[in-house]
Specification:
Layout: H1 15-30, H2 67-72, H3 82-85, H4 91-102, H5 109-116, H6 118-127, H7 129-133, H8 143-151, E1 154-160, H9 168-176, H10 215-235, E2 240-243, H11 251-274, E3 287-288, H12 289-299, H13 305-312, E4 319-320, H14 322-330, E5 340-343, E6 348-351, H15 358-381, E7 384-387, H16 395-409, E8 416-421, H17 427-441, E9 445-450, H18 455-465, H19 475-495, E10 499-504, H20 508-521, E11 530-535, H21 540-548, E12 553-559, H22 566-581, H23 584-600
Parallel strand pairs: 1-2, 1-12, 2-7, 7-8, 8-9, 9-10, 10-11, 11-12
Antiparallel strand pairs: 3-4, 5-6
Helix pairs in contact: 1-19, 4-23, 5-6, 10-15, 11-14, 11-16, 17-19, 19-20
Keywords: Acetylation, FAD, Flavoprotein, Mitochondrion, Oxidoreductase, Proline metabolism, Transit peptide
GO cellular component, one term: mitochondrial matrix
Catalytic activity: L-proline + a quinone = (S)-1-pyrroline-5-carboxylate + a quinol + H(+)
Length: about 600
């Protein structure tokens, strides 16, 4: 039987907060923004460049005294001033950035290693690719860079980026070792292992991949993450550390648990459609309990759905939403007869949860224990723990386990951050439901918003295996989704200061959009509720001006020995090449600053910190 932490019953939702959100959302939709940040209509979302609403003022429609004074204190950031943007770099570092932005071919590295030898090759890498994208070999080696960046207002998200550089055949063997454990006919194709996609690195340039070997290897990964957490705590007072769930346990658990969660959510959507509630946003759908009980009884269910839900909610209205429905999973040990879903092929109801062997139970428990150990170390070290997003067939389980950690550790302050990939069609539903749950239960919502790192692999897998493509159709629709999710979280921060978000983006328009919305809503940088994040070695013209303007901004800082971070560097070079092809502006700014220093006699400039 699946092991899921039992959690307390949901706290009563506060009607006044819900009303304020409705008012705020209406006002924000009607706020006039500049054409550079206006969003066009998409998926039923009104354009943010629409006409102004009568009776509602700016900053989300909240009337405040001293609005004129507040407006005078609005912060703007100029991303064109190269002297300020690159004041943390000497001229050789600028030249390296410019050269690598033009030519980042990495395939010649194997040949160079053979010609130069290991020692000379390591020195060459530290002057080029490694020096650009990696902070150093160990936690002592990285301290100078972290301290330098910190002196210019830029923090760090530490990530020990050592990984196995194995062949595709070996990757397939490792990933397929667990395929035989899949229960025959267990469910959807998406949540089953497939040999063609067993090497999960295929088509992925922006994220690291872990392969399951055994439980001892997972313990080793945990110890590595602990060292990274301690290094982050020892290097700065306000750092982050990144982890991946697939490094901490058997991927089969994540596959099967993800299928359970998705089946349960889709069954709710199906039931809502039977009551004429289809076509609504996830949080707007409601099930009328009397109709639900009648329908389930007709299908052959024996459970008392009406009695269970009305008995656990003091303010029961006779209706439930998706979050109430999901609470059945939390308390599943007491109500296993309610956890049934229809089997369309067999025409009958069947248990939602499959049976597990004793060893599988132990593997799942050990994975959860490792996650808990990391969370405790992060709390003790004063470090925020950032859980990276992964492939969609793992992500429902990863998000759920992260949510359980947030319930436990985010009560007083944001310690655990979940990652939301906005290239997914369901991103907005995921964000809104988790925000609502955090409000009901009273913990700090904390999110990192990214566009996503697995697009090509996800699309190819969906096409070949035969399920709906989970990715938005194009880049513009992903941009709209990103801004839609971001606006929702920013609104929540304005309503109650318990929400937090990291805008992890290299897109200057997205950063400018965030600054505009913060000014509209009266969100002050020093509140440390809105963070910004970029990769080390990329987009310094965004990161450092933000930091010097007082915004909390962070660089994703990888570290590890040269020969062991080669897979990471290979991906970074690929991503940088693709990214820089559309980033002519950054090259122009780098060249502009080099010419300015040459003309002003500052070519030998050295950063002071």
């Amino acid at each position: 039987m699946f092991y899921v932490k039992t959690v307390p019953a949901l706290k009563r939702a506060r009607a006044d907060i819900h009303f304020k959100r409705l008012v705020l959302n209406r006002a924000v939709r009607c706020t006039v923004t500049s054409s550079s940040t206006a969003q066009t209509e998409h998926d039923g979302v009104r354009s943010r460049g629409g006409s102004e609403c009568p009776g509602l003022s700016g900053r989300g429609g909240r009337r405040r005294e001293g609005t004129a004074a507040a407006a005078a204190n609005e912060i703007s950031v100029d991303f064109e001033q190269t002297r300020e943007a690159y004041k943390s770099k000497d001229s050789l570092e600028l030249l390296r950035s410019l050269v690598l932005s033009i030519n980042t071919e990495f395939y010649v590295m194997d040949l160079a290693k053979k010609i130069l030898g290991q020692k000379t090759f390591d020195q060459f890498m530290k002057m080029t690719f490694y020096g650009q994208f990696v902070a150093g070999e160990d936690h002592n080696d990285i301290k100078p860079l972290i301290q330098k960046n910190h002196s210019y207002g830029v923090g760090s998200v530490l990530d020990y980026s050592v990984e196995e550089d194995i062949s595709q055949e070996e990757a397939e063997r490792k990933e397929m070792e667990y395929e035989n454990s899949i229960k025959e006919g267990f469910g959807e194709r998406k949540y089953q292992a497939h040999k063609q996609f067993s090497d999960r690195r295929g088509g992925v340039t922006g994220a690291r991949t872990y392969f399951y070997a055994d439980e001892a290897k997972c313990d080793q990964h945990m110890e590595t993450f602990i060292k990274c957490i301690k290094a982050s705590g020892g290097s700065s007072m306000d750092g982050f550390s990144a982890i991946k769930m697939t490094a901490l346990g058997r991927p089969q658990f994540l596959l099967q648990f993800s299928e359970v969660l998705v089946k349960w959510r889709r069954f709710f959507t199906f039931l809502a459609s039977q009551q004429g509630k289809d076509g609504l946003e996830a949080l707007e759908q409601r099930l009328e309990l009397t109709q639900l009980q009648e329908f389930m009884t007709k299908l052959g269910a024996n459970g008392d759905f009406y009695g269970w839900f009305t008995g656990r909610k003091e303010d029961s209205t006779g209706c439930i939403d998706m979050l109430d429905w999901n609470s059945l999973i939390d308390d599943r040990t007491k109500i296993s007869d309610l956890l049934v879903v229809p089997n369309v092929e067999l025409g009958k109801l069947e248990p939602l949860l499959g049976k597990f062997t004793v060893e599988e139970e132990q593997q799942m428990k050990r994975m959860l224990q490792r996650v808990d150990v990391l969370a405790k170390h992060a709390l003790e070290s004063g470090v925020r723990l950032m859980v990276d997003a992964e492939q969609t067939y793992f992500q429902p389980a990863i998000s759920r386990l992260t949510l359980e950690m947030q319930r436990t550790y985010n009560g007083e302050k944001p310690v655990i951050f979940n990652t939301y990939q906005c290239y997914l069609k369901e991103a907005y539903d995921n964000v809104t439901m988790d925000v609502e749950l955090s409000r009901r239960e009273g913990w700090h919502f904390a999110a990192k918003l990214v566009r996503g790192a697995y697009m090509y692999q996800e699309r190819e897998r969906a096409k070949e295996i035969g399920y709906e493509d989970p990715i938005n159709p194009d880049y513009e629709s992903t941009n709209r989704m990103y801004h839609r999710c971001l606006d929702y979280v920013l609104d929540e921060i304005a309503l109650n200061r318990k929400a937090n978000v990291m805008v992890a983006s290299h897109n200057e328009d997205t950063v400018k959009h965030t600054l505009t919305r913060m000014n509209e809503l009266g969100l002050i940088p020093t509140e440390n509720k809105v963070y910004f994040g970029q990769l080390l070695g990329m987009c310094d013209q965004i990161s450092f001006p933000l930091g010097q303007a007082g915004f909390p901004v962070y660089k994703y800082v990888p570290y590890g020995p040269v020969n062991e971070v080669m897979p990471y560097l290979s991906r970074r070079a690929q991503e940088n090449r693709g990214f820089m092809k559309g980033a002519q502006k950054e090259r122009e700014l780098l060249w502009k600053e080099l010419k300015r220093r040459l003309a002003s006699g500052e070519l030998l400039y050295k950063p002071v910190y």
